[in-house]
Design a protein that fits this description.
Length: 411
């Protein structure tokens, strides 16, 4: 079964690595300050009577550096106190000229320590405010984008969400998984055009309507039409549209259907056959316009039906994934990377102690961040659906797609 979905959460290894780096930076600063103060003291206290203490002004450097990234005011105060004590020792040592230099060093050390302490105090208050905002954002995240269940009707789910906005945990991408009494499992993956709070508000409205309408509408086309109508009632507030992919899975037979409203096509990762994973894009004949613009186009050819074989995987995503660019402005090759990483995840699962197949979404997320090498320019969401090892109603084989041929393999 798939691992529990992660929405912008650090893994335990990454968290330990971050703590180790923070501790090492603190120790490195302490060591550097100690070496600097020692060198200054040795140089100034062992000078000749006719030589001025030229290195004494360097004693103002440790308290200045201590204020950078400090989490409490104690660190710049402690460094400033040690530096001031060293400056006093230097001032006690008599010199033939430049008698003003030790006094200036002590005054400078006191001023720098005060400035560093004040800056640290302001920074700590801001960090506390940011922590409060983050806690509120986490509550909003759980209310808006609830992690899907690990298993629903025998079908496994895993999700990863990366918001483009700084310090954000939610954005304009949306997803939801629900189980209905008459229509099986229904899923929505969407992307609001635009960013910021307006995109989050629109995403919340779409998700609220989907959670209510998914149980009452008989077809995915009707569900899309009612979502579009509900969005149309808010045209006075919204000037945006939403690309969306609606999915329906019969958890008894594995029969599935998608309805595409201008959204990137999902990827079907077939169960391993030999040494490779086969990946195909599930393209509808003609996608419907996005929600909010549905009445402007023809929706008659926007649906596609297919069968999920046992152990098949279905990857839903937003364009923030495929449009992510690296330093040379190359797009992320999702179908190719999904095939390679699916094979890697399967090999890990088959290895001794590998357990059940898992980790594909984590591998994709890490590979995407490695490809970009910087924060994303757009929100990105990935939803991985895992078919069970057997369906309650066994299939004789993969059926054709509503009279159409099976989608062409893309990787």
């Amino acid at each position: 079964m798939l691992a529990r979905g992660t929405v912008l959460a650090r893994g335990p290894v990454a968290a330990r690595l971050a703590l180790w780096r923070a501790a090492w930076r603190s120790r490195w600063l302490e060591l550097s300050a100690l070496v600097l103060i020692t060198i200054v003291l040795v140089s100034c206290l062992h000078r000749r009577w006719d030589e001025p203490p030229m290195l004494a002004p360097l004693l103002a450097v440790p308290p200045a550096l201590a204020g950078i990234g400090a989490v409490t005011v104690r660190r710049p105060l402690a460094y400033g106190g040690v530096s001031l004590l060293a400056a006093v020792f230097v001032a006690i040592r008599p010199t033939q000229f430049a008698t003003w230099l030790p006094a200036v060093t002590m005054v400078t050390t006191v001023v720098i320590t005060a400035v560093a302490t004040l800056g640290t105090a302001v920074s700590v208050r801001q960090e506390r405010r940011i922590a409060t905002v983050r806690s509120v954002a986490e509550v909003a995240q759980h209310a808006l984008l609830r992690p899907p269940p690990q298993c629903l009707g025998g079908v496994g789910f895993d999700v990863a969400y990366l918001a483009a906005a700084a310090e954000a945990t939610v954005g304009g991408d949306l997803y939801e998984v629900t189980r209905t009494a008459e229509h099986g499992i229904r899923v929505i993956m969407g992307d609001v055009r635009g960013k910021g709070l307006d995109a989050v508000e629109l995403a919340a409205d779409i998700l609220g309507m989907f959670r209510e309408l998914a149980h009452d509408t008989s077809t995915l086309g009707e569900l899309a039409a009612r979502l579009d109508t509900g969005l149309g009632r808010s045209l006075g507030r919204y000037e945006e549209f939403v690309t969306a992919l609606l999915l329906e899975i019969d958890q008894e037979s594995g029969r599935a259907s998608i309805f595409n409203c201008g959204h990137p096509p999902p990827l079907l990762i077939s169960a391993p056959a030999g040494d490779a994973e086969r990946v195909s894009a599930l393209e509808v004949p003609v996608p419907a316009p996005p929600l909010g613009l549905l009445a402007l186009g023809d929706c008659s050819a926007a649906q596609l039906s297919f069968h999920l074989r046992p152990d098949d995987q279905l990857l839903l995503y937003t364009d923030g994934v495929t449009e992510a660019r690296d330093a040379r402005r190359r797009f992320y090759p999702l179908p190719h990377r999904a095939a390679a990483l699916a094979a890697k995840a399967a090999a890990r699962a088959q290895a001794p102690g590998g357990g059940a197949r898992q980790g594909l979404l984590g591998l994709l997320r890490a590979d995407l961040m490695k490809h970009v090498g910087a924060p994303l320019n757009d929100d990105a969401a990935l939803l991985l659906i895992q078919a069970p090892a057997t369906w309650p109603a066994s299939l004789a084989g993969r059926a054709s797609v509503d009279g159409e041929s099976q989608p062409a393999r893309t990787a």
